[in-house]
Design a protein that fits this description.
The protein has 92 residues and is mainly alpha-helical. The chain has 4 helices and no strands. Helix 2 crosses helix 3. The termini are far apart.
């Protein structure tokens, strides 16, 4: 049974319920896994971060520009390293 004081409150709650953004990948947000090392899990996070940034800002240059404007010292090489997971799989 719903506990609402009036019709407006009910309508407002229903609107919020159906029109609030839902993170469909919430369960996949963190790659915590007992079979992975902390380094591997951090690399997975960095990979997803660079992927998101490139998509969000329409490319590496724009992503770097954005983060630099916030005081970050990230560069395109860093994003590329994160994409290739270089610290977990160093090139020999």
């Amino acid at each position: 049974m719903l506990i609402v004081t009036n019709a407006f409150e009910y309508a407002k709650n229903e609107f919020k319920k159906y029109h609030s953004p839902v993170d469909k990948n919430l369960e996949e947000s963190f790659n915590f896994n007992r079979k992975l090392t902390t380094k591997q899990m951090i690399e997975g996070y960095k990979f997803e971060l660079q992927k998101w940034a490139v998509e969000e800002f329409d490319g590496r240059k724009e992503a770097v520009k954005h983060f630099n404007s916030l005081g970050d010292t990230i560069n395109e090489k860093t994003l590329n390293n994160w994409k290739n997971k270089d610290s977990v799989n160093p090139k020999t």
